[in-house]
Amino acid sequence: MSKDAFKNTELIQASLKKRYARERRFQLFGKLAVLLGFVFLFILLFDIVSKGTPAFTQKQLQIAVDFDPDKLGVDASASAEQLRQANFNAVIKSSLRDMFPEVTSRGDKKRLYRLVSIGAEYALRDRVIEDPSLIGQRKDFWLLAHSEAAGYLKGQISRELPEVERKVKDIQMDWLDQLRDKGLTKSSFNTLFFLEGDSREPELAGIRAALQGSFFTLVVTFLLAFPIGVFAAVYLEEFAPRNRITDLIEININNLAAVPSIVFGLLGLAVFINFFELPRSAPLVGGIVLSLMTLPTIIITSRASIQAVSPSIREAALGVGASKIQTVFHHVLPVAMPGILTGSIIGMAQALGESAPLLMIGMVAFIMEVPGGVTDPSTVLPVQIFLWADSPERGFTEKTSAAIMVLMGFLIVMNALAIYLRRRFEVK
Amino acid sequence: MQTSTVFLTLVALCAVSFFIGRHKSRLIGMAGGGLQTLHSLPVHYGYMAALWAGLPALLVFIVWLGVEAPVIRNLVIAELPAEVLALSLDELGLYYNQVVGVALGSVDVGVVDANQVTAAHRYNELLTASRGLKMLLVSLVAVIGGLLAVMRVKPDLRARNHVEDIFTWVLFACSSIAVFTTLGIVLSVLFEAVRFFQVIPMNDFLFGLQWSPQMAIRADQVGASGSFGFIPLLVGTLLISMVAMLIAVPIGLMSAIYLSEYASRRFRAVTKPVLEILAGVPTVVYGFFAALTVAPFIRNLGESIGLSVASESALAAGLVMGIMIIPFVMSLSDDIISAVPNTLREASLGMGATMSETIRKVLLPAALPGIVGGILLAVSRAIGETMIVVMAAGLSAKLTINPLEAVTTITVQIVTLLVGDQEFDSPKTLAAFALGLVLFFVTLLLNVIALYVVRKYREQYE
Amino acid sequence: MKKHVLGAIVLTVGLGNLAVAQAQGRDNVSIVGSSTVYPFATVVAERFGRSTDFKAPKIESTGSGGGLKLFCKGLGANTPDITNSSRRIKKSEYDQCQENGVTDVVEVLVGFDGIAIANSRQAPQLTLSLQDLYLALAKDVPGPDGKLIPNPNKTWKDINPALPASTIEVLGPPPTSGTRDAFAELALGGGAQAIPALKSLRELGADQVDEIKAAVAALGIPEGFYQSYSQSSGKAPKGKDIFKAIAYSVREDGAYIEAGENDNLIVQKLEANPNALGIFGFSFLDENGDKVQGSLINGVEPSFDSIADGDYPVSRPLYFYIKSAHVGRIPGIREYAIEFASDRAMGEDGYLTERGLIPLDEVELKQVQADVASLKRLEM
């Protein structure tokens, strides 16, 4: 007997080693899996951040601008309306020629003018309208550099390349070097990127219009999807009888979670734009479509957190005579709320990053003006990214990545909010 | 902002009704010998009064909002001179658009004719009148409703049941929106899909082995005849989804196990949300990553060991899609594994099993139905994913199960067919709707299976 | 309780603000249509918006077909005023317009978009003829005995001994794209004409039934083809129709890779894969000169001048269409169109040319400007 026991112990001892090894291996796999996730995330983030960072600086050139009334076509007594029509382009051109008098050939002149952004013209116009006494004066101004020139100043274009292969030619590089040596170039934080709408000039393009559009769209989405989603979850979890209709609703919700988002776009086009005649390209319609798309996510997660509420709470409430509704709204929902909010935030994050359904309802559009309400034409951030990614101008590459960084920033903030709520939930 | 003023007034009236209803019920209760003589709590009488005041008035409000613009339009148009009325309906619409523009100040008065200016004045008058009336009517209905409710307050009025019935209906209405959405989706693609099936027989579509929508764009141009066989698209979609699942399921599941069973609480609290960022990265970004980084890498790798790899391989798209789905699988499995009762865990560990044995022999079998359900949901997510495949998988519809070759998916075809340059009634465009319909039913089938699996096997462990 | 009240107030104010979705007069120009014209139209719209008092037009990228569908849906503030198109409006679309009350449509030819065939700078520049392109990319090509066989060519060298021995791998637009359509017609169709049997087939009229049948038989196409073809199209086909059916089909065995509409992506894929060739718009070649190089087609390199002169054989016209009934009703339409057609935009030195648009010649430009000014009605 004792001998057998001893033998068993030995067997166990022997197998233990193996089992522990297996245990360690298993744990290692787990760690590896988490590590892999981190590696993927890191590669993606690194890729985006390294490409997008230059977009946050802008390059300016100091040009001595001569507001010659003859070139402008107006004099100091001009009205604001006349000033708007004045020829600021000619002023910039002649000022540039004055700085580089050696430039004579037509092609070189054209290249010279290309150092300065077309936005400079409108910036000068606004300055002069503000202060008409500038007319007739000569003054140094910092003008926005063209995206190609800025690319060279930022070191993105190398002289090593054969001249035919690059947009910035040798002579332009020489001019820019001269300006830099004289201290006539400077970098500053790119405020335009956050204050302006879309533009076809990379150096002028900003995300403000898209951000505002995204904001309006998300507000609509949240106001619709959150109450409806929570109510639906409450009904299905607490009130619904087990019957065919409930099954139908349940299958429908699960199925909608998997319907490709572009199909929601088709729905939006057919129902809200063609049938209800709501305006195209409006955050209102975008928000409704996205709320239909996020509803299943919110319902499913809300149900899960309502389910997780301990039955004892319900029974206690019912036991002291609360009605079903009272039980749910006074006792179950408050406990489930952090979980519900987490799910809703994840749903909102999904809506924030979505672009495919908006294609069908006209939100893939060029919008310069910042929308002021839910019915103004607008676009959203992921669509802006998509449009920039498809632009031929090289300067948009960094803009695309920078816009992605902003979008990811919002997503991270939303996720952080979700963590915070989850923490509170887990403490309970 | 007029509209929101009316709305706020309505909310205020509801609040007032609530307080009056509550107050009156208290008075009655006290008079009748204490609050316990009332059938319901005073708040319920308040809620009832508020609902009576609010709901009918809200209905009036919504109806008014709906008919306001058309009615004003007809009134303004009716007063226009005969020569304007002779315009076609559409032109009249444009004419009227300008009138509204003038009235709202967005169109310069200089560019329109005198009739339009008069009409614009009329429009503004009518609008003011309508707003006043709307305010009056909504308030009136709300006050009457509130008063009626307040008058009915009696000790034996079953206010609570009354309120709760209304609430239950509201809850039911919210959950039935899902059904209406489904109905809307089916209806919005059905008609176009039917038109497609009139041109292309359904059998050719569902069982055809060749997909090449090379049909002429212009009438004067013949081009090749298109063939619309759905099978290569389905196989391509499933192939890419499968690759994605092969990446996402092991990594996601192992991460979930590690996080829920091994990791410290703090590590878990940080790691889980950080990895969930992967799910939030816009799919456009993944698309670029797949097309420009992963695909060439796999291609070079394959060529260095003597394999021929297409530059748009299904492997690259699937791999990146897998990365995107990792957090999805992870979150779902984590929730489900955590939900396995602790007693099972403790019993197994108490018997001397190691943690990994407990996980493999006890926890996973217990959690399996839930995990399978979750994975099926992830599969339908992969099937519906668009941008990654648009950028990385290309559009060649090849019938193959070799992941090193290029394939295409249903969603990619839907997008390209819809935003292309071809005329809108050609079978090419209509095919997008047919694909949408079929895709809808494929995911429906998957979900019914998932629901069935979860339902059938879950019960045992709860 | 207080928290709930606060939440309720926030919610109601939010909902209240949403409810202001009332019909308002539209005062900006609404433009839809082709994604190829989009980069040019947006440049005009931006300058127009910045330099005038009009609101900047809203431009949606919907594809030519989707744009024309919206455009022809009818008149009214909720329909677009202008649609861009990378092909001419079809008769059926024009008819639909007429039916829906859009009777007066102005057609504006904007210029040309060259289609470049390019590869990575890391690989040698190719010199191709249209025939090379046809033999490389067509679905069926004449075999040694003159009969059509599925395209057997695997490497460029198989087609033309002067070309490198690399595998044929061409990234190009999908069949739904106007670029693909133009490429098939100009490059493949052009190349097929270099083959005598196909060229002679192309020249046969619809009445020369026997000759067509003989030519088809010589190409090894089964006899039933002619019959089924005439049945499906409802009339006796011309030799040209059959020629198109043969020549415009692109091979589907993997040598031609349909790569979607994102031209930037094609450029970057080419950079990653020096063996591949790509087909995309000229403006992308112009902008990415450091990464890719255009192949010489029939000895001509793609450049502004060669495309504008018509020496470079593969380019296509771009259009936009104006709804005349909206002019004067929606502010800014005529002014926008005039800006678009002006010398400083569309002219030889215009800002659109800088973006890669191939300009019209002087006479055509004057004609277009006159048509825009007078809103000349399109007749079809």
From TrEMBL, chain A:
Subcellular location per the Swiss-Prot or TrEMBL entry: Cell inner membrane; Cell membrane
Any GO BP annotation: phosphate ion transmembrane transport
GO cellular component: plasma membrane
Domain of life the protein comes from: Bacteria
Topological category with respect to the lipid bilayer: Multi-pass membrane protein
Cleavable signal peptide: none
Gene Ontology molecular functions: phosphate transmembrane transporter activity
Transmembrane segments annotated in the record for this chain: 28-49, 215-236, 256-276, 282-300, 332-353, 402-421
Domain ABC transmembrane type-1 residues, every copy: 211-418
UniProt keyword terms in alphabetical order: Cell membrane, Membrane, Transmembrane, Transmembrane helix, Transport
SUPFAM superfamilies reported in the protein's UniProt record: MetI-like
InterPro entries named in the record: DUF3333, MetI-like, MetI-like_sf, Phosphate_PstA
PANTHER family: PHOSPHATE TRANSPORT SYSTEM PERMEASE PROTEIN PSTA (PTHR43470:SF5), PHOSPHATE TRANSPORT SYSTEM PERMEASE PROTEIN PSTA-RELATED (PTHR43470)
Family per similarity comment: Belongs to the binding-protein-dependent transport system permease family. CysTW subfamily.
UniProt-recorded name of the protein: Phosphate transport system permease protein PstA
Organism: Pseudohalioglobus lutimaris
Lineage of producing organism: Bacteria, Pseudomonadati, Pseudomonadota, Gammaproteobacteria, Cellvibrionales
From TrEMBL, chain B:
Pfam family, one: DUF3708
GO CC term, one of those recorded: plasma membrane
Localization: Cell inner membrane; Cell membrane
Ranges for domain ABC transmembrane type-1: 234-450
Membrane topology: Multi-pass membrane protein
Keyword Cell inner membrane (UniProt): yes
Transmembrane segments: 45-67, 135-154, 166-191, 228-257, 277-298, 305-330, 362-379, 431-454
GO molecular function terms attached to this record: phosphate transmembrane transporter activity
Matches recorded under InterPro entries: MetI-like, MetI-like_sf, Phosphate_PstC, PstC_N
UniProt superkingdom: Bacteria
Keywords noted in UniProt: Cell inner membrane, Cell membrane, Membrane, Phosphate transport, Transmembrane, Transmembrane helix, Transport
Record flagged with keyword Metal-binding: no
GO terms for biological process, alphabetical: phosphate ion transport
Family designation: Belongs to the binding-protein-dependent transport system permease family. CysTW subfamily.
PANTHER family the record matches: PHOSPHATE TRANSPORT SYSTEM PERMEASE (PTHR42727:SF1), PHOSPHATE TRANSPORT SYSTEM PERMEASE PROTEIN (PTHR42727)
Primary role: Part of the binding-protein-dependent transport system for phosphate; probably responsible for the translocation of the substrate across the membrane.
Protein name: Phosphate transport system permease protein
Automatic annotation (TrEMBL), chain C:
Matches recorded under SUPFAM superfamilies: Periplasmic binding protein-like II
Keyword Signal among record annotations: yes
Region forming the signal peptide: 1-23
Ranges for domain PBP: 21-344
UniProt entry keywords in alphabetical sequence: Signal
Pfam families: PBP_like_2
Protein name, as recorded: Phosphate ABC transporter substrate-binding protein
Phylogenetic lineage: Bacteria, Pseudomonadati, Pseudomonadota, Gammaproteobacteria, Cellvibrionales
